[in-house]
Design goal:
heterodimer; A: alpha+beta; 7-stranded mixed β-sheet; 6-stranded mixed β-sheet; about 20% helix; globular; B: alpha+beta; PmbA/TldD fold; 2 domains; 26 strands
């Protein structure tokens, strides 16, 4: 039976105020090298259904694998919604989009589905070998990961959307070791949502990173303390994502009264040069999609203008409860999950300073390069860098390692003292808000933050 | 599954099938009120074939097309990944566990909702003695119940099955402006009513931790509580992994038999302890499990492995092949089996060193309740640099308050040599490695603020 007919048939069985079903097939091709050894290769397919029901003011979800479980699933999810509706003092209401029928086209520069697995293996092997041949490199973990998601969405409100998405990346870790046993590692990754050609002819990425890993063996560990820090676009992206972005996700602040109080639209939270946007609409970006997993068309949202909080990212539920406009940011990672509010592609808008201007303004501090993970905890955030350089009297000095930065969101946003005139977005994602989002995109220009807390090892 | 096994045996020299099914029912409570219900019924099948000395793998969630699953694994074999090991043979001495409680099938969401309300009411009533804390506290509760089953079949005669049930609730009492919190875990095989004493302890700690304090940066004796010890153990488990040894990227290379940590530390992996979250008699490759001592009174005793790395290192399989990824997120069937510790325990210390006594013995010190950025930094080298979320400051044996914007940093291979106290009790955690840990006090941990 055709997917649309099948989903229509299921949805007709559900007695609800609103319901939707997402059916998602996921084809994954993964090839892994550990050092010189190929350790994993293959293509596989999984699928599954996610059903959501709003009834009597309660909104519940169920994810299932097998069609055989439809009747049971509908019973469980409906009962769950009724229970929630009974218990909640404030009943759930949804802000619904206009009904949409669409079959979304893929725009790819080289469709990875048409490329043989041998060619993918060859390319991965080539980059991996290049890195391994560099001085002091003793190991790599290098992965080709191609994820093709074929999503079908139907709602009782009259929408039916078919949306395919493909993400293709090559990335991993390059490890260097010194004669005295010191181990250092860096990450390298290339790719995105715009096709296979993006990952071709990119040798320099892996060679440059292998050299950095080797250089780190003789780098100086940073001394913990307070520094002026110039962040490169990768670090600025993680800073924007972790320190601010998660708190523009309305579901995060919805039930945190103290934070919600501070994160009022119109509040001056950042320095007056700070403009932050989430924009997943441009085709070709890693984070691009046309509709979210509630069938809402994604739109660009200005989250901060001149340091003033100006917008939030919403699901249908939070748009209603915050009385905000729909933004199309309710996204599920795969067929096991319900959609949650997520950033699509968040970044600080470029300013007018050159990199030398930023170094001069920093005077003495750190030039912090390429992210190595980050996390937020509310008003506090932390993120790590792959490497850094000392800035002394506005000039770059020696290489430093072990740089981890922590800060208070509200203080640090006001300490963004200068913004560069360059711009770069990330090519691979990995936000871990409950579901690991491989399309999570961020970036920006270089920025200068004053008085950042750096914890050395 | 039997049909799949028979079909696959026609096409390969050795066959292994891993399958699982799970049913989970999650209910969350946010800011003292019911918030979300999520249900999930999932299945998955993974196939490994060995043919002419090469291995291939495939998986699906929905076993509708056995031929395609076999073809995908055969295509994977064309990559020529060598497998010199064999799948294990049937063992007559499998440990058995009573970890499925049939009453789990009768639990309803109403039971959890009612339990949450009782916890919430108890906390509201008992927060009243401190006006500031009572105003600012936020209560979130994560909770879930359900069941899991796995089955391993192979062409060497193994057909192992395991069923388990679980119930847990995990109240978090949040400090203002974020997720820093104190918490209290209840875990059982089926519904278990709240333990008021445990909830009261959480409230008492919340009060003590509530005031924010500034602390002079420097080196302090620091207690890592059980819920945050995973930060250190994460780095150690990478170091003690046979894969890291094979790749020569572990600081523990050539350290077997050497004293690497304080004599106060004994670290074991024991899948047979019945109070584990998920005890196991076989791993995800069908290898029989047993207790493995990794560090004995500070001396490094063993690397842990799976079939692949046991063979590569010419070692005996330790039964630690599991389908898990370090950062989570992936579908279990899609994950390649790798050496993983799932039942990690640090043995308790001096019987007089309760958590309270440990604090009393500190003149000036830090207690780490939660970490920000546990995954950041140079894990291979054993380095860590974490934000305190929350971190408490202790003076003259009393908790003074919560450290504002603090970080602690160090290297586990230095830090774990300098242990002053190990708590007399082990606590379950829901963190990685199935960790069961006591609180541990380390000397001279660097604090930045």
């Amino acid at each position: 039976m055709h997917v649309q007919q099948e989903l229509k048939q299921i949805i007709s069985k559900i007695d609800a105020d609103y319901c939707d079903i997402r059916y998602e097939k996921m084809n994954t091709t993964k090839i892994t090298y550990s050092g010189n050894e190929l350790t994993e290769i293959g293509s596989n397919e999984t699928d599954g259904y996610v059903i959501r029901v709003l009834k009597n003011g309660g909104f519940a979800t169920i994810a299932i694998t097998s069609k055989d479980d439809f009747d049971k699933a509908i019973k469980i999810v409906t009962e769950s919604a009724i229970l929630l509706g009974r218990e909640l003092k404030e009943k759930v209401k949804l802000k619904l989009p206009s009904a949409t029928i669409d079959d979304v086209a893929l725009f790819l520069d080289g469709d990875p589905r048409t490329i043989s697995i041998d060619e993918k293996l060859y390319l991965l092997k080539h980059y991996n070998s290049s890195a391994l041949q560099c001085p002091n490199i003793i190991n790599t973990t290098m992965i080709y990961n191609e994820v093709y998601r074929d999503k079908y969405f139907i709602s009782s409100h009259g929408s039916f959307i078919h949306q395919p998405l493909i993400t293709t990346t090559i990335g991993g870790t390059i490890v260097a070791k010194s004669e005295n046993g010191l181990i250092q590692n860096v990450r390298a990754s290339i790719g995105g949502s715009d096709g296979f050609n993006k990952i071709k002819n990119r040798d320099s990425v892996f060679l440059d990173k292998a050299k950095i890993a080797s250089d780190l063996l003789s780098a100086t560990p940073v001394k913990g303390g307070i520094y002026n820090v110039v962040l490169n676009p990768s670090m600025a992206g993680v800073f924007t994502h972790e320190a601010f972005g998660h708190f523009s996700e309305a579901d995060i602040v919805e039930n945190m009264p103290s934070l919600r109080e501070k994160m009022q639209i119109g509040a001056q939270l950042g320095s007056d040069i700070l403009n932050i946007i989430d924009d997943a609409t441009p085709i070709g970006q890693l984070g691009h999609y046309k509709y979210d997993d509630e069938g809402v068309a994604v739109r660009a949202v200005m989250l901060m203008e001149k340091g003033v909080l100006s917008g939030r990212l919403h699901s249908m539920k939070t748009a209603e409860s915050f009385n905000g406009p729909l933004s199309g940011h309710a996204v599920a990672e795969d067929n096991r999950f319900e959609p949650i509010v997520r950033m699509g592609s968040i970044y600080i808008k470029p300013g007018n300073k050159s990199l030398d201007d930023l170094f001069a303004a920093a005077d003495n501090g750190l030039y912090v390069i390429d992210a190595k993970g980050g996390q937020t905890n509310g008003d506090n955030f932390s993120f790590a860098a792959q490497y850094a350089y000392e800035i002394k009297d506005g000039k770059l000095g020696k290489m430093l390692r072990d740089v981890n930065i922590m800060g208070d969101l509200f203080i640090t946003l006001k300490n963004v003292a200068a913004i560069g005139n360059d711009f770069k977005l990330s090519e691979s994602g990995g936000c871990g808000k409950g579901q690991l989002n491989i399309k999570s995109c961020h970036g920006g220009p270089h920025i200068l933050i004053t008085d950042a807390l750096v914890g050395g090892v | 599954m039997e049909k799949l096994l028979e079909m696959a045996k026609q096409r390969a020299d050795q066959v292994e099938i891993y399958s699982y099914s799970s049913s989970s029912n999650d209910l969350s409570f946010e800011n003292f009120k019911l918030d979300k219900i999520k249900n999930s019924i999932q299945t998955g099948v993974a196939l490994r074939l060995i043919k002419d000395g090469f291995i291939g793998m495939s998986y699906t969630k929905n076993l509708l097309d056995r031929t395609k699953l076999i073809e995908n694994a055969l295509t994977s074999i064309k990559g020529k990944i060598k497998a010199k090991f064999s799948f294990p043979f049937n063992s007559q001495n499998l440990h058995s566990f009573e970890i499925y409680d049939k009453s789990i099938e009768n639990i309803k969401f109403e039971t959890l909702a009612e339990e949450y309300k009782q916890i919430s009411n108890y906390i509201k009533e008992n927060l009243n003695s401190n006006a500031n804390a009572a105003v600012a506290a936020t209560l979130n509760i994560m909770g879930s119940y359900g069941s899991n089953s796995i089955r391993i079949l192979n062409s060497n005669g193994i057909d192992y099955k395991g069923n388990s049930s679980y119930y847990f609730n995990y109240p978090h009492l949040l400090f203002p402006n974020g997720y820093s919190h104190v918490r209290s875990l209840t875990f059982a095989r089926s519904y278990k009513p709240m333990n008021k004493e445990k909830i009261q302890k959480m409230i008492d700690l919340y009060y003590k931790a509530y005031p924010e304090v500034n602390v002079t940066p420097g080196n302090y004796p620091t207690i890592f509580t059980p819920d945050v010890l995973y930060v250190l153990m994460w780095r150690f488990t990478i170091g003690a992994n046979a894969k890291s040894l094979y790749e020569k990227i572990t600081p523990l290379e050539n350290k077997l038999g050497e004293e690497i940590f304080s004599k106060k530390l004994t670290i074991i992996d024991d899948p047979h302890m019945s109070d584990q979250i998920l005890p196991r008699s076989f791993d995800d490759e069908g290898v029989t499990t047993s207790k493995l001592t990794i560090v004995d009174k500070g001396i490094f005793k063993n690397f842990y492995n799976n079939l692949e790395y046991a063979e590569k290192l010419k070692a005996t399989p330790t039964g630690h092949g599991y389908k898990e990824s370090a950062m989570g997120g992936d579908e279990p069937v899609s994950i390649k089996v790798s050496p993983t510790l799932n039942h990690l325990t640090i043995l308790p210390g001096n019987e007089n060193d309760s958590f309270i006594e440990m604090i009393k013995k500190m003149k000036k010190g830090v207690i780490v309740l939660g970490a920000l950025g546990a995954h950041s930094g140079n894990l291979l080298n054993g380095d860590f640099s974490i934000g305190l979320a929350a971190g408490l400051y202790v003076e003259n044996g009393e908790i003074i308050g919560r450290i504002k914007n603090g970080m602690v940093a160090g290297n586990i291979y230095q830090l774990m040599k300098n242990v002053s106290m190990v708590e007399n009790k082990v606590h379950k955690t829901l963190g990685p490695n199935g960790g069961r840990y006591p609180s541990i006090c380390f000397d001279d941990v660097k604090l930045s603020q």
